[in-house]
Amino acid sequence: MGQKRIQLICRGRVQGVYFRASARREARQNGLSGWVKNRSDGSVELIVEGEEDAVKDFLQWAQTGPSTARVDKVETKWRSY
């Protein structure tokens, strides 16, 4: 399939609910790399890269996140690898 990179901005109740730690664990379990950070507007921003199928699976996970989160919206931008 090839390598892909995606930028995500997750909005909702995504800070203070272990979203970043859960995202890091989910990414590592699927062989993905990248970074995740809280933003001042209360959202969480992520860059995720790796095999296309794994990136798509991670995007699916990000739609709900961990059980402690409430994801209202995920903005996505596919980036050049």
Describe the protein's architecture and organization.
The protein has 81 residues and is α+β, with helices and mostly antiparallel strands. It has one domain: Alpha-Beta Plaits. Helix content is 27%, strand content 43%. The protein has 2 helices and 4 strands. It has a 4-stranded antiparallel sheet with strand order 2-3-1-4. Strand 2 and strand 3 form a beta hairpin.
Give the overall average pLDDT: 96
Largest sheet: 4 strands, antiparallel
Give the count of structural domains: 1
Counting helices, strands and paired strands, the structural category is alpha+beta
Low-confidence stretches: none
Computed over alpha carbons, the radius of gyration is 12 Å
| Strand and helix order | EHEEHE
Beta strand %: 35-45%
Q: Could you tell me how far the N terminus lies from the C terminus, measured between alpha carbons in angstroms?
A: 13 Å
Return the CATH class: Alpha Beta
Strand arrangement within the widest β-sheet reads: 2-3-1-4
Number of strands: 4
Helix content estimate: 25-40%
